[in-house]
Please model this.
Amino acid sequence: MGLDAATQRDFDLRWARYIPQIRSSLEILYPGRVDEVESRLAEIVTTAMSERPEELKDLDQERILRPDWLQQPEMIGYVAYADRFAGDLAGVGEHIDYLTGLGVKYLHIMPFLQPRDGANDGGYAVADYRKVRSDLGTMDDLERLTKSLRENGISLVMDLVLNHVAKEHEWAEAARRGEPRYRDYFIMFPDREMPDQYERSLPEIFPDFAPGNFTWNDEAGQWVWTTFNEYQWDLNWANPDVLYEFVELICWLANKGVDVFRLDAIAFIWKRMGTNCQNQPEVHDLTQVLRGCLRIAAPAVAFKAEAIVAPEDLMPYLGVGHHYGLVSDMAYHNELMVQLWNSLATGGAEMAQVALAEMPLKPTSATWATYVRCHDDIGWAISDHDAEMVGVTGFEHRKYLSDFYSGAFPGSFARGLVFQENPVTGDRRISGSCASLAGLEKAVEEGDEEAVELAVARIALMYAVISGYGGVPLLYMGDELGMFNDMHYVDDPSHAEDNRWAHRPFMDWDLAKAVETDTASPAGRVNAAIRHILAVRTATTQIHAATPSVPIESPEHRLLILERNHPLGKMVQVYNFTGETVSLRHDVLAKRVGFDAHELLGGYDWDLRLPRIDFAPYQAAWFVGAEI
Ligand code: GLC
Model:
């Protein structure tokens, strides 16, 4: 395919820039086949560039000029299911005003490609990557939506499921028919010998409803690798044909106006005997190749890694060692999320302080997706080491958190549900909406005004942390209205056994309207608090994600204190994780921001000469020096 002169020039410049990093990863992934793979990738990328709409080429230029676009304080994220938020993709387009009203600049629409019929893991079992789920619209609707979002300064984020396809996907069907080309797209074994060997070191993701990692398929006469559900067939990324398919697909979707790909379950895409088959080094080489190709074809587009893994395994997704700056632009900050809930339950920030301080720094060019809740369950990713550092045992502490958030623990304010209890490991993950877990549901039901006040403050506190931390704070649909668990999921047979649906409610537009005027109701108070926090964040330059938030050791363990050493001046954030007033020695703050400070969330000047500074129950405070 011929390129016009200007596009050819872009291709040449970008190819020269990215091919060394692409090749170095290809050497590791497909030794002996590098030239062949390179020339196939060149063809795919050239075609994609010839098809890229002019408007998106302009966006490419803009983002080449502003490589830190995802790190800006004005980046505010919103996460929603198209149908549950607004009926369909066109409906989402009709609610753009609502999003801009919240300050949203980044919209993650949950899986919207055509999944298999029936149970489909919330859309993560894709049957056709080139079709929009029929009840949500068409590819034309997607293009129309990305265009209107773009006109309103909002980027569209979509899920890209790389680890598996639905067993109804045409590749899987061809594999079942025995076509050798497609057999090699999957990982299959004629008998249990290899699966049994792999199982020795593999964990189970859904022990309740999908035990084991392999499924027998009669038609293929094979054991198929199925990490998640039996209907999600893992792809064989050791086969370069799978790589070609995805490079083509990513470029094609990018050309529809997608801004960010959320690389779903990326940790799992490379398998190695004797390991848990997660976080293998080749995962980062595959990302490096995919990203290199995308940077050539569509430099406006970014990657977000969905790797819910231990902190030491997480940082490579943002690029360490020879992958520095060459893999994903963003990653979920699971550690922060878990520590927030942990701190609320224990009324202390000691473990959060230790765990966050021990995390290696992320590359300065990368950014976090910070979040309080998402569509998934919460797994208590608290290491034995972190627990021991504060004098508790990991096992007992994780058990305590499950008890606390399922509401079983005496005095707990939470109303969560146990997800995937694993009798072997003792794991009990937790489902539940932010408001239900933070105590609002219980407080409202019991008509306890004081408890309502505290629950609202807890929600605001957590949203303040994720908004101040640096990264893109993700507002999970419904949290801004303090929406409770929605137990209707049990009425739908394809959802009934998966209680993650309890925290995937339908948007309550009446409530959204009501809170505009009724700011005294619990929902109104949550809404006002979150809106305020987001507005302050947007205007605070020091929150740019290139600067890390560093926890400081303080004499007061009930407070989490984060320092942001920004060139414009220091910012110190103080978060009180208890329902009591806690006071702090003034010098902890004064030596960082000076005696005359301004507190941004409250909007007051503070005199830090006073010997002790008081923080109200669950207060969040963002201090900067008064002169800035
Ligand atoms: C991701 C999704 C989760 C899904 C899994 C398998 O972790 O967030 O909802 O079950 O991938 O695709």
